[in-house]
Design goal:
Elements lengths: L2 H18 L63 E9 L17 H4 L11 E2 L6 E2 L2 E6 L15 H4 L5 E4 L10 E5 L3 E6 L5 E6 L5 E5 L3 E4 L10 E4 L7 E7 L4 E3 L5 E8 L1 E9 L2 E2 L2 H5 L2 E5 L3 E3 L3 E2 L5
Parallel strand pairs: 1-18, 1-19, 5-7, 6-12
Antiparallel strand pairs: 1-14, 2-3, 4-13, 4-15, 7-10, 8-9, 8-11, 11-12, 15-16, 15-17
Length: 314
């Protein structure tokens, strides 16, 4: 066998071993001439393979089997990255003003209504520890001077464009509406319950479905699917006149109600320039000026709005 033939046999043998997955043999540059094999002094002994040629550059390693990619981090949820943000803030009662809290002069169903202690008016609810204001409705609107301009539907997060209706439950366990303030989206419903042992009535006044429904103990009344309206929906109990409540119904999902410490959070909001509105049942924050809202630029993953000292109309 010629030296050239021996070299070809050696290369083919190396490729076969690589194909079997036993040994990976570095590939050589195909343009190099083979080095002649040394003569075999013992013809009966098997021929030794020719030495590999020496090249000036390091041999190019054979392609190793691809390693499994490390697990990718979970992509950010819409509310924590991309074009969507979370807006957080807090509404507080000004330090210069005393914390409200006036007793109610209960004249009807006193035994039941006072079974938990004195009742106080809940038109303004302020935490004595944090001065946070409860039941403030906060929402986003376009950055325009016309407060009736609708929120652009194409700027709503895709997962929120289709409304998933929910039912908001308002109970009357002890001569107060719980909750007193509801924020809902068009298509939702409100179910009024009476878990008290005394009679109530719900005088509900919306643009599309006003009713005045007497409610004996352990009964309920559910509204039709709500329709958005620019003014608040009022409801009250005529039997216990201090019992009043409000509902705001929106045609978009970017709203919230402050909790007992005045905190609110709006998730999956689109990035961009918007206005943020603060509404309390006694009026807009800063009155007529506040009806148009205050500029907010949503650029970061989480936008922390500075605390707002609630300034209600006098």
């Amino acid at each position: 066998m010629s030296s050239t033939a021996k070299w070809v046999v050696a290369v083919v043998a190396g490729v076969a071993v690589l194909g079997a997955g036993v040994v990976v043999v570095p590939a050589v540059a195909w343009h190099l001439a083979p080095v002649p094999a040394r003569p075999n002094p013992n013809p009966e002994a098997p021929a030794q393979p020719s030495p590999q040629p020496t090249v000036s550059e390091p041999p190019k390693p054979a392609e190793s089997p691809k390693q499994a990619e490390p697990p990718r981090p979970i992509e950010a949820t819409p509310s924590s990255g991309g074009d969507w943000v979370t807006i957080r803030g807090r509404v507080v009662w000004p330090e210069s003003m005393p914390v409200p809290g006036h007793k109610i002069d209960v004249t009807t169903d006193k035994q039941h209504c006072l079974s938990r202690g004195d009742l106080v008016y809940e038109d303004v609810v302020v935490s004595p520890k944090t001065r946070g204001v409860k039941n403030v409705v906060v929402w986003l609107r376009p950055d325009t001077d016309n407060r009736r301009d609708p929120f652009p539907k194409d700027r709503v997060h895709p997962a929120l464009r289709k409304v998933t209706p929910r039912t908001h439950v308002v109970d009357q366990p002890c001569c107060q509406f719980e909750p007193r303030v509801v924020a809902a989206r068009e298509g939702d419903a409100i179910e009024f319950k009476n878990s008290a042992p005394v009679n109530h009535n719900v005088n509900y006044n919306s643009d599309t479905e006003p009713f005045n429904n007497n409610m004996s103990p352990n009964t309920s009344k559910k509204t039709q699917p709500l329709q958005a309206q620019s003014s608040p929906v009022t409801f009250k109990c005529d039997i216990h006149p201090w019992m009043q409540g409000r509902a705001r119904v929106f045609d978009h999902p970017y709203f919230a109600v402050t909790d007992a410490d005045g905190n609110f959070e709006i998730k999956n909001a689109p990035k961009g320039k918007w206005r943020i509105v603060y509404w309390h049942e006694n009026g807009y924050h800063k009155g007529r000026e506040g009806a148009n809202g205050f500029p907010v630029e949503a650029t970061a993953v989480v936008v922390e709005v500075p605390p707002v000292g609630l300034d209600l109309p006098k």
